[in-house]
Amino acid sequence: MNTDPLEMLLRDTLREDAASASGRLNGLEQRIVAELGDRAPRLGWVEALRQLVAPTRAARLGQVAVVAATAAAFLIVGAIVGKDLPLVGGHPKAESRETMLRSAAENELLFVLPALNAENVSVVGSFNDWEPSPLSDEDGDGIWTARVSVPPGRYEYAFVIDGRWWGQDPLADEYVRSFGEYSSVRYVGGGGDGV
Amino acid sequence: MTRRLLVLLGTLGVMLASAGVAGQAEIELTDFQGALSAIPVAAEARVLAALDRALRQEGFPASDVQRLFERLLTVPAAAADKEAVILTLVAGLEEGIPVDGLLNKAFEGLARGVSLRSLDQLLRQRLRILIEVRDLLYAKGIFRASAGASTSLGTSALPAARFDAMLSQLGDAVGDYLESGGSPHDGHRIYQNVEARLTMLRGSVLAPADVDLVLQRITPEDLTRVVLAALN
Question: How deeply is A22 buried, as exposed, middle or buried, from its count of CB atoms within 10 A (0-12, 13-18, 19+)?
């Protein structure tokens, strides 16, 4: 048996790290799937109404009138232009990660990234001129998510985790290299006879 | 009183909504001049002439170009290096090439902190590829229909937006292949990459008929020639 102090120290350290991380890694996939399902209705109606209404009745009525008028104006413009307004439906509990991503792929990019010890995660890509859009981890379980509505197309992107770029998202459709670095690629829409 | 308030606020709401819809003001030539003077750009007249022509064309991504100029302003680099990037973009406009892909690579390079010289080198290569691909399409009888032309010209004369979308995707696919380390001599591999890209975008960004047309007419040998010409 090896009793070298350095090796023993390394072994003990690794054992401690593995023991402390094992609890967090158990059921990681199920937690990601649950996370995706739970986050579908981002804002409850009650909370949305609470944010919408003001303390006084007049202001409340005024806000409702403004919202209604704005909605009517947009509907009229939409009808004139003759295009369907983009609708992002609610997401029921996902049966699998793939199912969720497929349902999200109709009109949006859904980013999911496990980054257990990260403090700041964002995504940069061709959909935002490579300017960071933040991912959120509201319950602090280390699974960061973001949804971005985009028109059909091909999108290159990379995650920025605590300032470091990471361009090999396992959920990407493909990868490309530019400037010697990897970027992930996702396709939204397509494969049909439209256009 | 309440009803009057409601009417007043409703009217205000409609006005605000209308302003929001109409608020995407068109970008004019003068909007670029500030950034160009601040860089400063020696060939400002040439840049403005190209932008002036481009602004009159449908689909020109004016706001992206404006954002690029503004972002270049903040880069700590020599004015000559910034101008080189702008002139590469202008060369694309002068050739009538869709510059969406070039803009995307420029934004990516700036975000990654790539030196402007390396960025310009990559943009120049991309532009050469786009020009070669455009000439290949012309050689294969696939043209950009002139504005207002009837579609009865036949399937080879694509409306400008569809031709530009196809050219942009073809050029990007070849550029991505090369920058990812692909061999310029492996025409079959280049063709596979192009075919995969066009197929993925069939029906969303690209018209199915255009995808079929292009894949029927171009060959792996054509793509090898395009790449070698662009690299030379």
Answer: exposed
Q: Which of A66, A159, A183 to mutate to test the interface with B (most CBs of B within 10 A)?
A: A66
Contact by Cβ (8 Å): A164, B173: no
Closest CA to B194 of B230, B231, B224, B232: B224
> With contact defined as beta carbons under 8 Å apart, do B93 and B110 qualify?
no
Interface of A with B in 82-141 (CB under 8 A): 124, 126, 129-131
Burial A95-105 (b: 16+ CB within 10 A, else e): eeeeebbebbb
Question: Are A98 and A85 within 8 A, CB to CB?
Answer: no
- Residue that has been written with the tokens 């010890």 in this structure: A117
The beta strand positions in chain B, using DSSP E, are 143-144, 157-158
3-state secondary structure B49-102: HHHHHHHCCCCCCHHHHHHHHHHHHHCCCCHHHHHHHHHHHHHHHHHCCCCHHH
Write the CB contacts of B83 (distance below 8 Å, at least 6 apart in sequence).
B39, B41, B42, B43
Q: How do B157-158 and B143-144 pair as beta strands?
A: parallel
The answer to whether residues B32 and B65 touch, using CB atoms and an 8 Å cutoff, is yes
Among A76, A156, A178, the residue to mutate for chain B (most B Cβ within 10 A): A178
Global ipTM: 0.85
CB contact under 8 A, B201 and A178: no
Q: Which residues pair with A176 in a beta bridge?
A: A183
Encoding tokens for residue A123?
């995504």
Torsion of CA A92, A98, A102, A107, to 10 degrees: 80
pLDDT in tens, chain A (195 residues): 445 666 666 677 667 765 666 666 666 667 666 655 554 444 455 554 555 555 555 555 566 566 566 666 655 554 444 333 332 223 333 344 455 555 555 789 999 999 999 999 999 999 999 999 999 999 999 999 999 999 999 999 999 999 999 999 999 999 999 999 999 999 998 655 555
pTM over 0.80: no
**Residue B26: DSSP 8-state:** P
